[in-house]
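Quick note —
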Amino acid sequence: MLKILHIAPINFAGVPYDFFQMHNACGDYSRIITLHQNERVFPEDVCLKLPLPNYSLVEILRRKKVTEIEGKLSNNVRYFNPKNPIEKTYYNLYDFFAKPRIEKAISDYNLADFDIIHYDGGLDFYRNAKQAIKWKKQGKKIVCCYYGSDLRIRGLIKELDEISDLNITSEYDHLTLKKDLEYLFYPYDTSELPQKKERTSDAVKIIHSPTNRKYKGTELIISVIEKIKKERKIEFLLMENVERNRLLEIKSQCDISIDQVGGTMGGTGYGKAGLETLAMGIPTITNMTKEYSNWLKENPFVVANDFNELYNNLIELVDDEKARIDIGKRGIDWINKYHSFGEVDKRLKHLYQKYGII
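Predicted structure written out below.
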């Protein structure tokens, strides 16, 4: 039995928690420690509930960084580096005040007893990765898993990257940013989902639930929807800041889902939201490069990268109920084949062996 610890800044869309559940479901022992509470109310194992500023100077600096980086992404990943003395001082002070709570958690939950440490988002308890470095010296294996903006915006934490035994991602575009990344599908347990509801009206229900409008291309999506509303009988549900269980229930009543189209800085492809709707048998539209679409085996997504593609694909789906049903069935089968706990765990164990972790 492997003892696997996950450390995550936040439970990103519930995905780190899904890895934790997968390990335990497949016969290993795992815990997950998150530093900050996820406002979306995803489940937690142990959350330190460290303060996460949303309106301070740090948030202003974060937005400024996104603006500076946007449109300038290259195929080479950056290393994180504070932009100015204020930002550097903030991280030093934050680590100093967080240290007592972190050390208490290490003691209370026997975190030093774990053999494999997964750093979700590629971030240690401390910005300089001093705890990871300590554990590495004690012979523990270090795994970094990247999810999105960690590489696109923040960049690598140099100290942690230098000691990592395995680097994995579930984001296709990351593979061009960092050459030693291994691709791994998200693990997903469909038992959390409500059953797909039968249609109760003539209007075709279309849902879009962005966590960030800019990243998801929401304004473009709205413009297409407004055009289609004049031509077809549809109901559009733009769901933002909705409690998770309620959102899943609303999704189960819909006919079509739009994940993301034409957004910026959010990458291409799909995330947890796309898995949820596919697993409920709902045709799911997302943006995806031709290379990614061809690379993704048995790809069940409806691909739309711009206004015209989204408009044309929506019209086809709205008009053809049989196509919606057929695509929905393909989605369910694909989720079970590639994202199930058993399949993802098997692939991860293969990577553990490949990189000498087990």
